[in-house]
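Figure S4 source data
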Amino acid sequence: MNNIPAGRLTTSIRYQRGHVTLLTAILFAVIGLTTMGMFNVGQQSTNKVRVQTVSDAAAHSVAMVVARDLNFKAYTNRAMVANQIAIAQIVGLASWSLMLDNAATNFSYITTAFGWIPGVAALGNAIARAASSIESAISQAAPRIVMVLERVLDALSIAQETFHLATVDMARETFDDVVSQSDSEIDTAALSTNGVLWRSFRNTWNGQQGRYRAQRRGDNSRPARENRARLEEFRGVTERSADRFVDERSYNWLPQVGFIPLQARMRKYGGSDLVPGVANNMENFNWTAMDSVGFEARTYDADSFRWNSWREVFPFGWGAGHALLGSNRNFDYAARVPNRNARWGNGTWKLSTTTSFGAQRYGSNNLSRSDGLRPFYDLQQRGFVGDDQLNIQVLLLKRANNVRTYNRLLTENGGQVQPRFDVEERGGMAGNTMATLAKAGIYFSREHARRRDGQREYSNLYNPYWQVHLLPSTYDERLLAAGFAQVRM
């Protein structure tokens, strides 16, 4: 060690330090480039996930607007049914009170004939006065109540159409709010300028449902026939929603008495029905009600060993009431209802004499002007509607210059990336744009509220069971979205 010159030792040490510095510089450059590349990849991945999340949220939110309107239509359709049933109840109550008044009056005549029995005549007169008071109160209140219910029906129909027309704007506003509040650098013009996807939304909205209404008499065009069929369906839903008082208030006032060969009973028949009518040459439906009570008898047929049918022997009470279309004042039972035996409690005309009294005397007992069944919305397709048929698609784009890569950060802070160190020169975002596609379906499901009869209920606008979920996009939809994204680059 002592034989080595000092100058040579110093030169050897300096030479080794120079190699380490060069290698360290190269290593730092590689680490820096790798870090910039990893940072850029992380930023692109993060933004891709964010844009896809925003697409899903936007599609789901717009679909919720659609489902909300479908449920609103179902609620308002049901509300219109409920108000129609309320009119039927009022019309039926007016008819029933007239029947009760006439029956009580006839009962007072009978008790007067037995006036020699203490208290009998007074009882009959008291019942007649009470029935007359009830009828008077109902006859005064019923027209006003029907008039109010008619205006409520108008409001419900108008609200349904107004909400429908406003839904497209609400959907677009919801879409803009979700996207802008989630990421303001996303291109929100994609949905509005993409004619295919936006047209798909409009077709979903306007092509899958329709507004149905009364038609002009004699119009046999295809749309008119479709409107008549849907109005008849609405009438069926309304009649099936009626309670026992509206549907059939028929029962025995006095139980049957007697033995072979003769039996007798006092039978009450009545009901309210939604029957066809015409006003201003427009076909629609209006409510009519009839109530009859009388004595019936039947005889025993010894040859066939069975009882014969019941037959009317004495009329006792009758009444009728209506809420007729337009300016109609009188209801002609014989001309307008060919199958009378199937109407008004399925038996009013079994008491033919009694019911004829009511038809002749109260055929003009029109409580209020009616506009019948109002225009309403329903699905154009009957039966099952798949969740892929009612769907919303959202395509969002984000430009490369809106992704905060290393180059952008350095440029924003006054720096500049040397070309030899630019990791984005050839490995940047494809087409300088990232695109995401999301799809949400609106479907009808009543699994959480099963029907009592155990039957499956298909899609309809009479019950508010419309829900939303995200759906996978098909290959054709992704291909179409990719083509649109290329055009927007």
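Figure S5 source data
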Amino acid sequence: MADDHKYYTRAGAHTVPARHFIVEAIRSKRNQSKPKLIHLFRLKPNHEQILQLGILALTDALAIKVNIQFSPIPESLKDIPDVFPIEITLINRDNPFFFDVSFFSGSDESFGNEITLKLEYYDLLLNKYEEETVIGVKNSTPPLFIGDTQHSKTLKAIESIEKALKESNSNTVYKTRYNVEAPIIIEDPFAYVADLLPDLLSEMSKDIVENPLIREFIIRSKKSIYNSNRNNDILEYYFEDHDNLRNKIRILENCKLVYNITYNNVDRFVITEHLLEKLTG
């Protein structure tokens, strides 16, 4: 500034008073050339039960040799005291630094609200900056979730299950009240199917005794063509040998003695170890 309280700039071969907006632009740029760091709490992306503390740059200037320290060290971080002070090579707008500090639940107690955050850093000219700020999670943390997040979808699914269970219980009461026969609970499924399917179970028992390591079988017509896999031995049962074969297998499924693994358009099933034990016993 000259004696007349004006700033002068060169304009060609002349020196002229700078207009106000030019002075303000230069002043603003000077301030932005200095690094300025702030802190921010957030929920960890894709892991929202974790609370993170971030150190971010407010200006475009680089902050280098950043030193981060707490006083006192929060309860949630006392198990790793050797980590502090944390030293970061640089922080700028494109490279903020976030680190886990606590679980979100109970963070008010585990991290605290009267913690002094100490920052020490340098600019590119090695000018040193020191800041101390009292921080805490109270009134500083974001909501656990906002909008239709995965959490809300999970909650809706749980509510849907709860509603279905209530309706199921209601239906059970209705059936009992009006003397409608309740579902049959089969205490011994094998004894039950043995009376219904003696011929099929007899053939299966013989096959398993002869082939003790085979668990897989198919059902098909003898007129159909089946290209077997040399590396996968299976048993075969035919519609021509057993009336209502498909329904008989369905009974075994309902009793959880076999389960369906159909693929390649072939009705394919696996014998459970429980059924195998009964058939060979």
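Helices lie at 20-32, 107-110, 150-177, 189-196, 198-210, 245-254, 273-280. The radius of gyration is 38 Å.
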